[in-house]
Amino acid sequence: xxxxxxxxLPATYLSAxxxxxxxxxxxxxxxxxxxxxxxxxxxxxxxxxxGVPHNPLYWAYAFGVGLGxxxxxxxxxxxxxxxxxxLMPQRAYxxxxxxxxxxVLGAVLLYWxxxxxxxxxxFWNEFGTRFNFIAVDYLVYTTEVIGNIxxxxxxxxxxxxxxxxxxxxxxxxxxxxxxxDGGTRFLQRGKVVLTWLALTVLISFAFKGTLKDxxxxxxxxxxxxxxxxxxxxxxxxxxxxxxxxYTTLPEDQAFRDVRALIKTPEATFISDDPRDLTRxxxxxGPEKHxxxxxxxxxxxxxDFMKTFGDKRDITPNLDALVDQSLFFDNLYAxxxxxxxxxxxxxxxxxxxxxxxxxxxxxxxNLFSVATVFNDRGYQSDFVYGGxxxxxxxxxxxxxxxxRAVDRxxxxxxxxxxxxxxxxxxxxxxxxxxxxxxxxxxxxxxxFFLHVMTTSNHRPFTVPADRVPQKNGTRExxxxxxxxxxxxxxxxxxxxxxxDDTIFVITADHCSSSAGRTSVPINRYHxxxxxxxxxxxxxxxxxxxxxxxxxxxxxxxxxxxxYRSRFFGYDLFQLEPGRERAxxxxxxxxxxxxxxxxxxLEPQRRLEQMKPDFDTGDGTPVHPVQQSLVDQATAYYQVAxxxxxxxxxxxxxxxxxxxxxxxxxxxxxxxxxxASH
Length: 676
Prior knowledge:
The chain has 676 residues and is of the alpha/beta class. 43% of the residues lie in helices and 12% in strands. It has 24 helices and 18 strands. Helix 3 (25-48) runs antiparallel to helix 4, helix 5 packs antiparallel against helix 11 (186-206) and helix 20 (426-442) runs parallel beside helix 21 (474-493). Residues 291-559 form the Sulfatase N-terminal domain. The chain crosses the membrane at residues 26-47, 59-88, 100-124, 155-172, 193-211. Keywords: Cell membrane, Membrane, Transmembrane, Transmembrane helix.
């Protein structure tokens, strides 16, 4: 297909005002963009499936409000064309070259908009939302993200089809891009540009991304938005100041409430300062300086397991390990990103809004679990199969008590069974971990390893002949995750230090975050095994547990007496009824207590519901239980305040040995319930 010169325009067109003639291509772009937005929304509606009930009111809201967001976004999107139509001199604009430049500019804009639309479909398929903070976050790491897309999708074919679609649309609608100008002057055209600028500024201040969130269905709210608008809104809110955007309590009250909320029988505050959370944790008897291997598995949702009702039998080894371990079946993750899991497992802190502390500024020398181990002569390593610059992992861990070990530490001579853009296969990662464990043991040091896996991540490619499932599918990746953990434990069993090693296996987050509520609780449910045949009695624990409780509970099992500013509990020291969890997104902060989920949101809004733990749906609570709102506020406000004011750092006195209790408190191992 080729673009041929058009016949003369009708007299009615030529009689239009010169400015209307000159800026008529804006109508072409606007109509094209609105139609593209409607088509994108229609496809996303189909992808949402049962997430959006068959209710015409929902559909009308999504497409009606969505049209408004598309028109607002068009004001921004059209700026390249507005500038071109303003700056091109009349003579050049009306020339053949000017006409072809306009065609090329229109094609480039249309290709970009179509590319964004297709990207939204991919993003929705992965996360169940339009572009948000995750998309902004990924933009920083173009190598991994583009590599992941190339390995997961036929990118070349898609780009070629997009080019063909652009050419077809351009040929069919080329009349809308005719260069016509009845005699406009530069300053005259400038008035249009000034009006466009004023409109841009006005909507920037008057229009918010949250205005669409007025229904009780998150999918409908997401469909009502616009991907480009949501992307830049998320970019602006990547650093959310808690005190500015969320409900607050008086500072002294917030700290006083948190001191009461984190107090447990084996803990004693070292001072009466209401803003000092430092406690001395005391257990009876000697400490157990056992080796610890903490494995945070990429995207290991509880519902992948037969233990929780899955019928595919893709985790036979992990299901078998349940009866051999101290297994926690009511555990909830802090977030939906790896960095949130790493933050919870290293710092035992509720999530702060916006960036995770793993990626935030001034995140060095924080009070971490590694510092507790290092004070006892341990070698603490963070071991990752990819390149740890991703998500700032190497910097964060190396500045908070860990030795960072990643793909760079695997030599070219080492056998690699498989790798993709995210890193080496899990079995090769575990080989690297075993090397670190052997080295520490040879030096006579106990070791603490935090191992972060990657294989259970799109593109889901795994070594051949390991699992029967089709390579490149989520089922294959989960089955391979299961196989590689069993293989790792089998290999570790032959080591002289195996009997004195505790294996802690959990997930960083679930595989999906999509749901009909703002914080679908079923998308935060993760498993936890604590496995050490010679030291840990197998039991199944049903009590509610937060991801930030894993480290304090582990330290209790080791009978450590230490100074702590962790927000988490040793679950076995906690009185029944005080359990809580902190499921959150980057801006919506959840607090689960009992059967009520409280969610704090920007603009000091909140919602409270009784969640359905199977589906993630929720029933609003009326009237709101203010005591739970205050508890949630206190936790999140104090955590954000302490980080902002650099009060989470490690202190010299933290290394001071804490004397064991003469018998006032049991060890966590002794406090474990006698029955399941």
